[in-house]
Write a structure and sequence with these properties.
alpha/beta; Rossmann fold; 9-stranded mixed β-sheet; 18 helices; about 30% helix; globular; binds adenosine-5'-monophosphate-propyl ester; EC 6.2.1.1
Length: about 575
């Protein structure tokens, strides 16, 4: 089916630290993994306790939990310090009256304060909602409105994008910065933290109580709140151990922002549940900064994304050679298809096999992976982790034989599976429409040896630089622009970003196509929604293809773009 399939990169001797895939799978039982946790006996649990306090209390108080650096800061935060700073923040929230189950959003750049706030929120049993700092007003509004958040932690710089007046449920704005003059409803983070007690009575919750709410995009409607519970720690801990292969001495760097699920499941929970030292680099992507982060912190395990690897590749082998990256022993990737070319390049310049992993916001944790001990087939996502089963289904739920393309599905349940879509039970049910399976929305096939190969999305969701963008959100923003009558948005293949966003637009009467207008429309989306959601390409059309019920046919736009046949047009308007 795929000529790349023949290529195999052998597992090396140093990878023998893990039992073979077959051995790990046979007789696997999640309840054995549960025994690792203190709550196994009591039934009461708290993710932040297991991630931080437990280690701080077990002799790792002075071990570095977080190496943080950006252009102006360079800090090491110990497990002991992370425990007390998150305790303090828990106390700040309690003093404000925030309770178990309340939603608290965090909207700020990656800094040690962000991590203290995130853990402190979890410690009091509140549900944390992390927001990517690049979100603009509409994106922030949608998420706070839908979740009815009671508090937000943000910075004075980002505050103008929080429409406080329009959010009646939002009682507290906690501002992180220097010399904060807190107005009504506002709280000075630093001042409050300085006064708060180091001691906190942790809220012991049930395994099925709310932990985190990650908003993500689908092909229709506003972003949906994917709801995860404390029970997810079982999978975070286990995959941290067997997929990230984390050991006590490891210095681990996940390059994702906590605004996305990778940045929490594998940027917060998995590494700390495993007692590793976590690295966070603030600021924007720059190849030199990235390599110096590895060199300076002696990063051993590195988890990043294809788009970053491709950008590092285009920065040239010479850039790699300027740094000592010999500390690296395990490299992984997630978020979009990992090109075989990138895998080969990684082997050449880093002397590392880049291990692809597949999962989604909804799955909460890794599911299909290349284990350290497994041969890699470049271009394949790997095999389902122990304790899980994946299959390729037809649209009626029948399991297809090897080499047949179909719906990538996972047998339910697994520990970190989402437990609901906030405010939207119908949407939740859609994922489970084929009885006994979670239907991912990705299409794939499985080869004879059980390796899974990603083929594409079944729906119109766009994956640009590993970020999931819903075409509907972008279209909704576009039609708010005074010149735009109608808009249809698609993902256009792009060598660096995987896909870029392309918008087809028909103009209102009185407006003429021009490059200035294109730039203005792109800017409008960038400033209203988010930079990564702005179309990089715009094409004006007199008319857009629509169904008779008025729905814009994105598949026709895509066919136009790719020069492919437009397929069945029987439902088109005229
Ligand atoms: O299409 C798949 C793609 O990213 C989608 C999930 O996006 P998100 O929820 O934002 O989570 C990203 C990180 C967990 C999937 O439906 N995707 C993710 N990993 C891979 C991938 N596509 C190909 N190969 C992967 N390894």
């Amino acid at each position: 089916m795929n000529n790349e399939q023949a290529e195999i990169i052998k597992a090396t001797a140093t990878d023998a630290n893990l039992r073979s895939y077959e051995e790990a799978r046979s007789g696997f039982d999640w309840t054995e993994v549960e025994k690792h946790f203190s709550w196994h006996a009591t039934g009461k649990v708290n993710m932040a306790y297991e991630a931080i306090d437990r280690h701080a209390e077990a002799g790792l108080r002075d071990k570095v939990a977080l190496y943080y650096s950006d252009a102006t800061r360079d800090e090491a935060v110990t497990y002991g310090k992370m425990k007390t700073s998150s305790n303090k923040f828990g106390n700040v929230l309690r003093r404000l009256g925030v309770k178990k189950g309340d939603r608290v959003f965090i909207f700020m750049p990656r800094t040690p304060e962000l991590y203290a706030a995130l853990l402190g929120t979890i410690k009091i049993g509140a549900i944390v909602g992390p927001l990517f700092e690049a979100f603009m007003e509409q994106a922030v509004r949608d998420r706070l409105e839908d979740s009815q958040a009671v508090a937000i932690v943000t910075t004075p710089e980002l505050l103008p994008r929080v429409p406080v007046k329009d959010l009646p449920h939002l009682k507290h704005v906690i501002l992180v910065g220097d010399n904060i003059q807190a107005g009504p409803g506002q709280v000075d983070f630093k001042g409050e933290m300085a006064q708060a007690s180091d001691e906190l009575a942790i809220e012991w919750v049930d395994r099925e109580d709310g932990l985190i709410l990650h908003y993500t995009s689908g092909s229709t409607g506003k972003p949906k709140g994917v709801f995860h519970v404390h029970n997810a720690m079982i999978q975070h801990y286990y995959t941290g151990k067997i997929v990230l292969d984390l050991k006590p001495g490891d210095v681990y760097w996940c390059t994702a922002d906590p605004g996305w699920v990778t940045g929490t499941s594998y940027g917060v929970f998995a590494p700390w549940l495993n007692g590793a030292t976590n690295v966070v680099r603030g600021g924007r992507f720059k190849p030199q900064d990235w390599y110096s982060t590895i060199e300076k912190n002696k990063v051993t395990v590195w988890y990043s994304a294809p788009t970053s690897f491709r950008m590092l590749m285009s920065a040239g082998d010479e850039t790699v050679e300027q740094f000592d990256l010999s500390s690296l022993r395990h490299v992984l990737s997630v978020g979009e298809p990992l090109n075989p070319e990138v895998v080969r390049w990684g082997l050449k310049v880093y002397n590392q096999r880049i291990h692809d992993t597949w999962w989604m916001t909804e799955t909460g944790g890794q599911l299909i992976c290349n284990y350290p001990s497994m041969d890699i087939r470049p271009g394949s996502m790997g095999k389902p982790i122990p304790g899980t089963e994946a299959a390729i289904l037809d649209d009626n739920g029948n399991v297809l034989p090897p080499n047949r393309m179909g719906n990538l599905a996972i047998k339910t349940p697994w520990p970190s599976m989402m437990r609901k879509i906030w405010n939207n039970p119908a949407k939740y049910e859609e994922y489970f429409r084929l009885t006994g399976w979670y239907v991912s929305g990705d299409s794939a096939y499985m080869d004879e040896d059980g390796y899974f190969w990603f083929q594409g999305r079944v729906d119109d969701v766009i994956n640009t630089s590993g970020e999931r963008v819903g075409p509907f959100e972008v279209e909704s923003k576009l039609v708010e622009h005074p010149a735009v009558a109608e808009a249809g948005v698609i993902g256009k293949p792009d060598p660096l970003r995987g896909e870029i966003i392309k918008a087809f637009i028909s103009l209102r009467v009185g407006f003429e196509p021009s490059d200035e207008l294109k730039a203005d429309i792109a800017k409008f989306v960038k400033e209203g929604l988010a930079a990564h959601a702005a179309p990089r390409e715009i094409e004006f059309k007199d008319k857009l293809p629509k169904t008779r019920s008025g729905k814009i046919m994105r598949r026709v736009l895509k066919a136009w773009e790719l020069g492919l046949p437009t397929g069945d047009l029987s439902t088109i308007e005229d």
